[in-house]
Design a protein that fits this description.
Blueprint: E1 6-11, E2 20-23, E3 35-40, E4 43-54, E5 66-67, H1 76-88, H2 93-100, E6 112-118, H3 128-136, H4 143-150, H5 154-162, E7 166-172, H6 191-206, E8 210-216, H7 222-236, E9 241-245, H8 253-263, E10 268-270, H9 276-287, E11 293-296, E12 308-314, E13 322-323, E14 329-330, H10 331-342, E15 345-350, H11 355-362, E16 367-371, E17 382-387, H12 401-412, E18 416-420, E19 429-432, E20 449-451, E21 456-458, E22 465-467, E23 481-484, H13 488-498, E24 504-507, H14 515-526, E25 532-535, H15 537-540, E26 548-553, H16 567-579, E27 590-595, H17 601-607, H18 611-625, E28 631-640, H19 643-655, E29 663-676, E30 679-689, H20 694-703, E31 712-717
Parallel strand pairs: 8-15, 8-16, 9-11, 9-12, 10-11, 12-15, 17-27, 18-25, 18-26, 24-25, 26-27
Antiparallel strand pairs: 1-2, 1-4, 3-4, 3-5, 6-7, 13-14, 19-23, 20-21, 21-22, 28-30, 28-31, 29-30
Helix pairs in contact: 1-2, 1-10, 3-4, 4-5, 6-7, 16-17, 17-18
This protein binds adenosine-5'-diphosphate.
């Protein structure tokens, strides 16, 4: 007898190359997108039905154990996104599904809590204790809280429930998000802003894939403009969902508040620091289509949106969109892919767009919307260069005389200064004055940074931490270890010496390590309780400090030294961004850039305020080299337990390259960080013509070599880190 057997292909959130087939037993129903439990070896795992096929199978199959009725269906667009993103980033689809399934609890029945509320009926017997409880019982409240409020034991509350005077009500712990109101009026827009908003709103109503670069100087009102596009999406389709991606450190209370002010409702928030409860609620509400506006960090792309009508990537140039650990991906690129799959517009917003995005806008693949001015009287700061060869600071000091003079003037005017130095801690290097030894992390090829506030030496790559030793670990000399070079803590020390009466604070991930500490610093800066703020990148982004009129960039050249593909671009973007902090409100601002290479294009064109010329010169040099966006780039990092093993397998890997035209491979070479967490690293760089499917090439290459489990290989498409 031949019954038609039903087979389902199930994708598991595991590093497996493809979905596995299972039998669907009689009595169970499942369609693509349903969550099911299946056996894998000795384990039972939750996976997602990827396809349903008719039998008979070509080999004996295990059966699906159960379906999960409480779980929503994973929408087709999300499944397609996982498949296509998986190919693009050379990562098994199961690894991407694992990112979609970041909240396991969201698949279970929604948790509820039991509350009590007065029923209006009289209890049989009224004791003084019972009276107290009934006097307190108003809105639904947890029984324990009610007992506490009335100052009685919980038995009294229970007795009133039994007597019928209190009723139990169940309430979900994951209430839906409030619905945004598209019709609240925003700021009256300037003509430029209006034109951009109108075009983006048209795109939204077209319900088609429409990428757009929203290119406007800092403070020109890009946020106000994309708010209009969000409102248009909500008006056009009351069920529309909108995703706004922000760099993780820009996801502050202040930003959420702006959304709330504009739409009258707090949006759903998604980021790595959110607790599991908040994640469960956001995930479930997104899947149910009830969360309309989602504001999140890069991983929010993997949420199961049903009806995504618009994606915004704010600060699209930001390097933190590139995830470098685990699944290596560039969220901006994947956002464009997601918009393509969802047939919706994607707005890439930036004051300093990435070269890739600018090239796409130039070629007409992306619409290019420009905001040239700041609304009202606010204007961009003047950018001045302090040539450190002509105006060097004194020995062991880092602030040059022209900047000191500017700081004096600013202080005298009762205004604020931001000194920008992208180095945490006190000193980036610790050296023995007796033997010259530089202190390194034990298992990583990187210098240790001295942190004075905590008294620790820290490896910023791996987080390795140790107390600062009293003796040199190499020669044993006592008290010979000295920090070399400046970090923000040391710069604060110098600033306090120079300006003893000024209120000086350090703003870095060490001093603003919690949301509360961050909010406190930002608030005090906004209120004028700080005169001089000394900050790393964390201070450079997003904040609006009305009394800040002077920005000093201490070591503007440091970013240029890395020498990688984007060194100039990144330096330009960061400096422009940090300079843009000055003079936001009605006070004119200025920025002073300390540099030893005022003639380098990034610095000279920044001072000239000519971003377009800088980007043109960068584009030309990339075109000459055939680098992105004119060609493709990939990297392969092999990591092994010993140097010999790394060399041996790097050679074997190199020998297994597939033949392909239009592809060049360089390497293997030791990676600049040769040892990381005890693993020895070798690197290949791969360049191809634009029309080559470089992802397919890299995946094919990897599949040709059977590496031992102790050797790991990481493929990176469009690498940002060359370390
Ligand atoms: P961007 O995102 O380009 O940096 P924002 O949207 O944050 O700019 O705007 C900068 C500041 O200017 C904000 O405080 C914003 O509320 C204000 N602003 C923007 N557009 C207008 C406008 N048309 N009228 C009044 N204020 C505006």
């Amino acid at each position: 007898m031949l019954f038609p057997q039903r087979i389902v292909s199930v994708l598991l959130p595991q590093p497996l190359p493809e979905p596995f087939d299972y039998l669907l037993p009689d009595g169970l129903e499942a369609s693509p997108g349903d969550f099911v439990v299946v056996p894998l070896g000795p384990r039972e795992l939750i996976g997602v039905v990827w396809a349903v096929k008719a039998g008979p199978p070509s080999r004996p199959l295990k059966a699906v154990i159960e379906t999960i009725p409480a779980a929503p269906n994973l929408p087709e667009a999300t499944r397609t996104f996982i498949d296509r993103a998986s190919k693009y980033v050379c990562t098994p689809p199961g690894n991407l599904l694992a990112m979609t399934m970041r909240s396991r609890e969201a698949l279970e029945d929604a948790p509820t809590e039991r509350l009590v509320v007065a029923s209006g009926e009289a209890p049989g017997r009224l004791t003084p204790a019972r009276e107290k409880v009934l006097a307190e019982a108003g809105a639904p409240v947890a029984p324990a809280d009610l007992a506490r409020a009335a100052g009685v034991s919980s038995g009294v509350v229970k007795g009133l429930v039994d007597a019928g005077a209190l009723t139990i009500v169940e309430r979900t712990l994951d209430p839906p998000f409030e619905l945004p109101d598209a019709d609240r009026t925003g700021k009256p827009l300037t003509a430029d802003q209006q034109a951009a908003a109108a075009m983006l709103s048209d795109f939204v109503r077209e319900r088609a894939y429409r990428p757009a670069l929203l290119d406007g100087i800092t403070g020109s009102g890009k946020t106000e403009v994309y708010f209009e596009a969000i409102a248009a999406a909500l008006r056009d389709d009351p069920e529309a969902q909108v995703l706004v991606l922000l760099p993780e450190i820009a996801l502050t209370q202040a930003v959420m508040q702006r959304f709330e002010d504009r739409f009258g409702a707090v949006p759903a928030e998604w980021h790595s620091a959110a607790g599991s409860k908040a994640r469960r609620r956001a995930w479930r509400e997104v899947a149910a289509g009830r969360a309309r506006i989602v504001v999140g960090a890069r991983s929010a792309l993997f949420l199961p949106f049903h009806n995504l009508r618009l994606i915004v990537v704010d600060e699209e140039h930001d390097g933190s969109y590139k995830q470098e650990e685990g699944v290596i991906y560039q969220a901006r690129d994947l956002a464009v892919l997601r918009a393509h799959i969802g047939a919706c517009p994607v707005i890439l917003a930036s004051a300093t767009p990435s070269l890739e995005t600018l090239a796409n806008a130039k070629s007409g693949r992306y619409a290019h919307l420009k905001l040239k001015a700041r609304p009202g009287t606010a204007r961009l700061p003047d950018i001045l260069l302090a040539d450190m060869r002509l105006h060097p600071p004194e020995k062991d000091r880092w602030i040059s005389p022209p900047l000191v003079a500017a700081m004096e003037e600013t202080l005298a005017a009762g205004e604020q200064t931001l000194l920008y130095l992208n180095r945490r801690g006190y000193a980036p290097l610790v050296l023995c004055k007796a033997c010259g030894e530089r202190l390194k992390a034990p298992d990583t090829n990187s210098w240790l940074t001295e942190h004075r506030y905590s008294g620790m030496l820290v490896c910023h790559l791996t987080g390795f931490t140790m107390r600062k030793p009293s003796h040199c670990p190499s020669c044993g000399a006592e008290g010979s270890l000295a920090g070399v070079g400046p970090g923000v803590e040391r710069l604060a020390e110098e600033t306090r010496q120079r300006f003893p009466s000024a209120r000086v604070e350090v703003f870095s991930s060490d001093t603003a390590s919690t949301p509360e500490a961050l909010l406190d610093l930002v608030t005090r800066m906004e209120e004028g309780a700080i005169d001089i703020l000394i900050g790393t990148q964390i201070a450079a982004k997003g904040h609006n400090f009305p009394k800040l009129t002077l920005v000093g960039a201490i070591d503007a050249d440091s970013g240029l030294k890395g020498g990688d593909l984007r060194a100039g671009e990144r330096t330009f973007q960061l400096l422009q961004q940090v300079a843009g902090r000055a003079g936001r409100a009605d006070r004119p601002g200025r920025a002073m850039i300390q540099t030893y290479s005022p003639e380098s294009p990034a610095i000279a064109l920044l001072a000239a305020g000519d971003r377009d010329a800088f980007m043109e010169s960068e584009l030309e040099s990339r075109e000459l080299m055939g680098f992105p966006p004119f060609g493709r780039l990939g990297s392969v990092i092999l990591a092994a337990g010993s140097s010999e093993q790394a060399d041996e397998w790097a050679r074997a890997f190199g020998a297994a390259q597939p033949n392909a035209s239009g592809v060049e491979v360089w390497g293997p070479a030791p990676a600049p960080i040769t040892v990381l967490r005890g693993r020895h690293r070798r690197r290949f760089l791969v360049r191809s013509e634009r029309n080559v499917d470089l992802s397919a090439f890299l995946s094919a290459w990897k599949s040709r070599v059977k590496l031992p489990p102790s050797v790991r290989v990481a493929l990176d498409v469009e690498p940002y880190s060359f370390m």
